[in-house]
Amino acid sequence: MSRNRNNLDFFQKAGKYDLLANYYKYSDPNKHIAYYQKHLHYINMATHYLRSNMMSNHQNITDSGKIRFVHASTDTKNVDIYINGIRILRDFPYKEISNYLSIPIGKHQVDIYPAGNMVSTILSRKIKIEHDRHYTFIPTGYVKNIKWIVLEDEPRVPNKETKLRFVHLSPDSPELDIAVKDRDVLFSNVSFRKSTSYLSLSPMIVDLEARISGSSNIVLPLSQIQLKPKRAYSILLIGLADGEPNLEAIIIKG
């Protein structure tokens, strides 16, 4: 049996037993427990395949890419995220950043549902994973107009350098500049759902500020940003300029 066929079987069985466990959750606790144990068994097997990419014919285990998720939709509650019908993130809250997950190369189905509710998706899309690539998938905006941002990450950095990029995820904020405090602009005219290219820098600790584009009006100070050597960073601006959740910056590696 091929690796893809094996993966699909595990995905389908885990999904089937998850549905059965939920069906009997209140009417028959014994069946609920029995089916949930089967669900856990197959999801563990599926996760093993996704993480290790092992194959019976000893194909090179590096035939995979890596993906992670960031929940940046300001008014979307906790979500469950599925890949190929398997829940890989449960009750995933706003502002949360997942670890990278190894996933075989090729096309995969990603679905986001309200936590604990598989009636209708919030977002759904096919993704294509290429060998040795790193991706960050971010649901953004208000729930009534939620959309994906897909970033290709570049974690590899020369020894004596660091890299930085900026991602605008605040739906009610205008175009922004990111500048060194009281000094020059690093990234200019970045609009909602847009990201910059990486900027190579010398490692440092620096004070930055988000300004309304083309002005000196500071929207958010970004103090004491530590940029270590041989690392890449992304500044994610999330939240609302006028309302809650409040505007803030999250610094993530990659």
Automatic annotation (TrEMBL):
Residues 66-179 form the DUF4397 domain. It comes from the Bacteria. It holds the Pfam family DUF4397. InterPro entries: DUF4397 (IPR025510). This is DUF4397 domain-containing protein. It comes from Cytobacillus dafuensis.
